[in-house]
Amino acid sequence: MKKSLRNLFSRRTRAVAAVPDGERVYAVGDVHGRLDLFDALIDAIERDDAALAPARTTVVLLGDLVDRGADSAGVVARAREWQRQRAVRILAGNHEEMFLRSFDEIETLRAFLRHGGRETVLSYGIDHETFLQAELEEVQQMMREAVPQEDIDFLRSFEDAIEIGEYLFVHAGIRPGTPIIEQRTEELRWIREPFLSHSEPHQHVVVHGHTICDDPQDRGNRIGIDTGAFRSGRLTALALEGTSRRYLQAIEQDGIVSATDKIAA
C-alpha cells in the first residue's frame, strides 16, 4: 500500500492530464444534504454515461455529503444505494469527520452543530422542539439513538484520496510539494492555503471540493467543483474521459430542479 501511494508522486503530470484508456470518471462536488439536487445529478450522470460508448465508469463523491442542507440522512441513504448499483467511491470530508467524532466528543459536537450539524441531526427524525430544549449531552444521546449503525459504518468506510490516471481526487486539497504518503488526513480534509494559491504543477491534477466557488475552477494544477449546493442551488459534477473535461450540473431555480450539461470546460 505504501509503495502504491508513494507512486502517486513518482511521476510528473503531463501537459494535459488523462484518465486511462477505456475508463470514464464522474466526480461530484459537496452535496451537503441537498437530496433533491443529488437525485437530479445522479439521473443526469446515468443518462450521460448510457449515451456514450461503453467504458469502465467510476463515480467519485468528493465528500461533505452531510450538514447544512435539509436531508443529510436521505443523501447518505441514496449514496449507499447508488454504490450498490455501480462503482461509486466516496471521500471523507471534514463534515463527515465532525459528524462521526460528535458521537463521543462534546466539544466536537458543539462545533458540528454550529456548522450545519443541526440540520443533519434533525434529518434523522429528532423532534425539533425537543432538540431546541436539549443540553449537548442530551443531543448526543439522541444522535446515538437516532442514527443507524449502518450509516455510521458507511461513513467510516469513506476514503481519504483516490488516484485515477493522472488525476488525484481529495476532499479539500493537498500540501504542495509533499508526497501523498506524507500528507496528513487533516490536510486532505481541511486544507485551503497554501494549496489554493499554489500555481506550480502537482504530480497529479488535483480534483477537490471543500472551498466554494461560483463556477467550477480549473486552475491547471487543480480543479475545484464545490459550487455551494446548499446555498446556491447548484451541484456540479466533472466528467473525465481521455484528456477531455466536461461539467454537468443539477440546478434549482424557482423551486424547480433540473440538470444541464451546458457548462463550459
> Residue ranges: pLDDT <50 for 5 or more in a row?
1-14
The SS-based structural class is alpha/beta
For the terminal residues, how far apart are their CA atoms?
Answer: 34 Å
The proportion of residues in beta strands is 15-25%
Helix count from the secondary structure assignment: 10
Specify the biggest β-sheet.
6 strands, mixed
Mean pLDDT, to the nearest integer, reads: 94
Helix content: 25-40%
Shape: globular
Gyration radius (Cα, Å) is 18 Å
Element-by-element helix/strand order: HEHEHEHHHHHEEHEEEHEEE
Number of strands: 11
In the sheet with the most strands, the strands line up as 3-2-1-9-10-11
Can you lay out the helices and strands and say which pair or pack?
Layout: H1 2-6, E1 23-28, H2 35-51, E2 56-61, H3 72-85, E3 88-90, H4 94-102, H5 106-123, H6 128-133, H7 136-146, H8 149-156, E4 162-164, E5 167-169, H9 185-190, E6 205-208, E7 217-218, E8 222-224, H10 229-232, E9 234-241, E10 244-253, E11 256-263
Parallel strand pairs: 1-2, 2-3, 5-6, 6-8
Antiparallel strand pairs: 1-9, 4-5, 7-8, 9-10, 10-11
Helix pairs in contact: 4-5, 5-7
Explain this structure to me?
The structure is a single chain. 37% of the residues lie in helices and 21% in strands. It has 265 residues and is α/β, with parallel strands linked by helices.
Characteristic key phrases:
265 residues; alpha/beta; 6-stranded mixed β-sheet; 5-stranded mixed β-sheet; 10 helices; disordered N terminus
Quick rundown:
This protein is of the alpha/beta class. It has helices at residues 2-6, 35-51, 72-85, 94-102, 106-123, 128-133, 136-146, 149-156, 185-190, 229-232; strands spanning 23-28, 56-61, 88-90, 162-164, 167-169, 205-208, 217-218, 222-224, 234-241, 244-253, 256-263.
